[in-house]
């Protein structure tokens, strides 16, 4: 099985504390059968992040009754790993390859105005009103991930979703959240058994 170099390109993988599916696609011509074994590939610049992601997602797939393997032991980071990917798919007996990568990271700043302006009554009344009307400013970092599933038997992209969530540094917890969102969807869509 071959993946395009753009899919294997290294990017910083970030996790999300909660995720929602923002877009999805399934190949309407793909008839299956659903996969019962999956090779998990996390695309990340950090080898530690990749290992945490792959190990956690593999554990979640196994808990859902799917045979799964991580790619990091056999596939080195970077584009050079694509040459070994086909051999790894065969040696693990994987019927599908699940690839997750960061698509976008964006900072959002929200300014909530206070409940009104400064009030009269001299300086003391003005000061109390000014304090009460100070806006609240919050910053949130949102991460959009793209997760794709390739049918290794047909060497074909069959399913992809984009998810969005608030960034976190707890990669295992974020990966569990992502897996708990995607695995039931993959089963419902007939991609996994």
Automatic annotation (TrEMBL):
Origin: domain of life: Bacteria
- Report the protein name in the record: DUF4136 domain-containing protein
What is the native source organism of this protein? Luteibacter pinisoli
């Amino acid at each position: 099985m071959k993946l395009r170099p753009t899919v294997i390109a290294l990017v910083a993988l970030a996790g999300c504390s909660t995720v929602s599916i923002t877009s999805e696609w399934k190949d309407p011509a793909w008839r299956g059968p659903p996969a019962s074994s999956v090779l998990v590939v996390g695309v990340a610049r950090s080898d530690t992040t990749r290992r945490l992601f792959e190990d956690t997602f593999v554990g979640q797939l196994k808990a859902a009754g799917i045979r799964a393997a991580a790619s990091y032991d056999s596939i080195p980071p970077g584009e050079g790993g694509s040459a070994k990917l086909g051999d790894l798919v065969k040696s693990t007996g994987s019927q599908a390859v699940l690839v997750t990568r960061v698509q976008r990271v964006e900072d959002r700043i929200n300014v909530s105005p206070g409940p009104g302006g400064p009030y009269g009554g001299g300086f003391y009344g003005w000061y109390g009103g000014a304090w009460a009307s100070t806006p609240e400013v919050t910053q949130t970092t949102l991460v959009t991930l793209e997760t794709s599933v390739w049918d290794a038997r047909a060497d074909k992209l069959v399913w992809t979703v984009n998810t969005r969530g608030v960034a976190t540094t707890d990669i295992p917890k974020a990966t569990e959240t992502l897996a708990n969102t995607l695995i039931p969807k993959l089963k419902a869509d007939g991609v996994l058994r």
